[in-house]
């Protein structure tokens, strides 16, 4: 998950979001309605359709990356970038829908996740490493396409912003979910701000010491920790006090959300039980390093067409300062080609899985313009 608004730039996944928009005539706020586009209901991915998704491992940027893809070779590519604690599998509904509508869906396990190689050093999970992986992946899977469509969520949204910042020449248009863009604040490092604002129990602060949070998660077990993340629906900040986990006892029964059946949850569980949480948490451990590395882009804008979508129950949506950032024009200033902002009512953080049909339609409608 990603979070942290504040004026600190690229804080982390789950920190930033938005509210209804009045301020800019170029951006229209939409309240999502049932899809009018004829799309098969992809909310339950069957074994048959999953088997139709192609899987392969490619060597990109010095690591072996697993990628799932579906759609005709030569069709316009949509690159899907997942967040934490997620996998390529988080896009299963979008892969099915968008490939059926004429696109080629490409969804990798990011560096350290799932079946992709996980470098051992935390320092190898900076934004430059991850964007480098994705550029190399695009060179391999779509050498005939100078630009591709991109969709990101949570940490994947942050990586998508970085991709657009570093290599706008590779992105045709972007649909980003949950985490808004924030320019780099040259005056203060992100972790300093997070500690000052939220305190040491804030989950991103708890993630910083190598091995500490992993040891605590191990006491609860992989299954319980994943269920805690996926079922989290509190729009407030996430705190993980030492020794208390999410505030439940170790033997507490956690109910999965309706959008994640047990058999689908088991895919995540199998992969995280094998690889652990450390590689994904290492992304958070590079927040200040990313701040240092992006100094040359201080003041830069995102110069690709963008549509942004968030659930009104998402903690990113309710993070302090986010609503003013949107309503008072900051978001539009920093992302001048921002064309649409969508606030989904009654929807929480994992919106592309909670409301797949609506998200599929939003993605399709936006990309059809280009």
TrEMBL record:
EC code: 3.3.2.10
Domain AB hydrolase-1 residues, every copy: 76-181
UniProt keyword annotation of Transmembrane present: no
Domain of life, per lineage: Eukaryota
Signal peptide annotation: 1-20
Record field: catalytic activity: (24S)-24,25-epoxycucurbitadienol + H2O = (24R)-24,25-dihydroxycucurbitadienol; an epoxide + H2O = an ethanediol
Gene3D superfamilies cross-referenced by the UniProt entry: alpha/beta hydrolase (3.40.50.1820)
Entry keyword set: Hydrolase, Signal
Pathway note: Secondary metabolite biosynthesis; terpenoid biosynthesis
Pfam assignment, any one: Abhydrolase_1
Any GO MF annotation of the entry: epoxide hydrolase activity
Glycosyltransferase recorded as keyword: no
Recorded family membership: Belongs to the AB hydrolase superfamily. Epoxide hydrolase family.
Primary role: Epoxide hydrolase involved in the biosynthesis of cucurbitacin and mogroside tetracyclic triterpene natural products (e.g. siamenoside I and mogrosides IV, V and VI). Cucurbitacins have cytotoxic properties and exhibit deterrent taste as a defense barrier against herbivores. Mogrosides are nonsugar highly oxygenated compounds used as high-intensity zero-calorie sweeteners; they also possess pharmacological properties such as regulating immunity, lowering blood sugar and lipid levels, protecting the liver, and acting as antioxidants and antitumor agents.
Name of this chain's protein: soluble epoxide hydrolase
Organism: Dipteronia dyeriana
């Amino acid at each position: 998950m990603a979070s942290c608004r504040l004026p600190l730039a690229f804080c982390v996944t789950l920190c930033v979001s938005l509210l209804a928009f009045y301020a800019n005539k170029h951006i229209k706020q939409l309240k999502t309605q049932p899809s009018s586009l004829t799309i098969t209901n992809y909310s339950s991915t069957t074994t048959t359709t999953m088997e139709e998704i192609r899987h392969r491992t490619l060597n990109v940027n010095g690591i072996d990356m697993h990628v799932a893809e579906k759609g005709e070779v030569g069709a316009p590519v949509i690159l899907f970038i997942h967040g934490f604690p997620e996998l390529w599998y988080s896009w299963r509904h979008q892969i099915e829908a968008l490939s059926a509508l004429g696109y080629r869906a490409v969804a990798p396990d990011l560096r350290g996740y799932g079946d992709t190689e996980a470098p051992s050093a935390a320092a190898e999970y900076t934004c430059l490493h991850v964007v480098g992986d994705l550029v190399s992946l695009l060179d391999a899977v779509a050498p005939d396409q100078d630009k591709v469509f991109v969709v990101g969520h949570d940490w994947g949204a942050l990586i998508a912003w970085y991709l657009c910042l570093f290599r706008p020449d590779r992105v045709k248009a972007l649909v980003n979910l949950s985490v808004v863009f924030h320019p780099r604040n040259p005056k203060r490092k992100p972790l300093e701000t997070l500690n000052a604002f939220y305190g040491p129990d804030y989950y991103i602060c708890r993630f910083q010491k190598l091995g500490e949070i992993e040891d605590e998660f191990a006491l609860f077990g992989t299954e319980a920790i994943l269920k805690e993340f996926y079922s989290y629906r509190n729009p407030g900040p996430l705190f993980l006090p030492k020794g208390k986990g999410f505030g439940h006892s170790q033997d507490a029964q956690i109910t999965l959300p309706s959008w994640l059946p047990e058999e689908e949850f088991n895919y995540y569980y199998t992969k995280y039980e094998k690889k652990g949480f450390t590689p994904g948490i290492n992304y958070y451990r590079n927040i200040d390093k990313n701040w240092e590395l992006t100094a040359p882009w201080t003041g830069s804008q995102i110069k690709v067409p963008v549509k942004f979508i968030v659930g009104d129950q998402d903690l990113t949506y309710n993070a302090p300062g986010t609503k003013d950032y949107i309503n008072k024009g900051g978001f539009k200033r920093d992302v001048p080609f921002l064309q649409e902002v969508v606030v989904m009512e009654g929807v929480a953080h994992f919106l592309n899985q909670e409301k797949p049909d609506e998200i599929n339609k939003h993605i399709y409608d936006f990309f059809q313009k280009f």
